[in-house]
Write a structure and sequence with these properties.
With 246 residues, this protein is of the alpha/beta class. The protein is built from 11 helices and 7 strands.
């Protein structure tokens, strides 16, 4: 049922992470644990998590230890990964409420599209890294949304949040990992678990904890039904400061 808000004027934008948020496991990591040198992959992943390596450096290092495998074979591998079953409820809720949902991922488009197609989910914009095959048929990463000044992600999620929302819109961010820390801070409502939650708790950033998307939908139903809704002050200031930098 559509929620009737005083905000027939309100516009919402929802940004959702993919690996570990929509999916139960991090597909990007699992690819290299399956098709690369497992010990080396684990060491590289640990260095990425501890920020010893930037995301771009980490991805490049992981691809260097990848055994010969085609993108077709990787596509077959990723089809088996489960999503949070309640994600379909979130998609339906967003459609009912006319909320634009955008997927932001520091992973790769080929497996995001593979999973969404398997679930018959269409029409959601995706901003992520990409995979191509070089002359020898080996997969190679491409980073079309890299920001040279942003070291956190190979795909600058913050830029996508800013470019796809306006000052008169309410923004929602749902994530779980280190690549979500930066973009979430520019949003009005943050849903966090795992390392994103730990960051928010440590830095005293206002957020809603969640275990699955049922928690998110229930909270959004409550928020959207409020007659008055305030933007998060910290997020407004961060956006304004960014605008000043051009």
């Amino acid at each position: 049922m559509n929620i009737v808000h005083e905000q027939a004027k309100r516009v919402y934008k929802m940004f959702v992470d993919f690996d570990g948020t929509i999916t139960r496991r991090d597909i990007g990591e699992q690819i290299f644990l399956q098709y690369g040198d497992t010990q080396k992959a684990e060491a590289i992943i640990k260095r990425i998590s501890s920020r010893e390596l930037t995301s771009v450096e980490g991805w490049k290092a992981l691809f260097e230890i990848l055994h010969p495998v085609s993108i077709d074979e990787l596509t077959k591998f990723v089809r088996s990964f489960e999503i949070d079953s309640a994600f379909l409820r979130l998609v339906s809720f967003a459609q009912e409420q006319q909320v634009e949902m955008i997927i932001l991922s520091d992973g790769f488009e080929f497996y995001i599209r593979t999973i969404l197609e398997r679930e018959n989910i269409t029409g959601i914009p995706i901003y992520s890294n990409r995979l191509i095959e070089d002359g020898s048929g080996k997969p190679q990463p491409v980073f079309p949304y890299r920001d040279e000044e942003c070291k956190s992600c190979a795909n600058c999620k913050r830029n996508h949040v800013i470019e796809n929302s306006g000052d008169d819109e309410f923004t929602v961010y749902i994530g779980n990992g280190s690549s979500d820390v930066c973009p979430a801070q520019y949003c009005d409502f943050i849903f966090a678990k795992d390392s994103l939650r730990k960051f928010c708790e440590k830095e005293k950033v206002t957020f809603f904890p969640y275990d699955n998307f049922n928690d998110v939908v229930s909270r959004l139903e409550t928020l959207f039904s409020k007659k008055r809704l305030k933007k998060r002050r910290q997020a407004e200031l961060k956006r304004k400061n960014l605008y000043k930098l051009g």
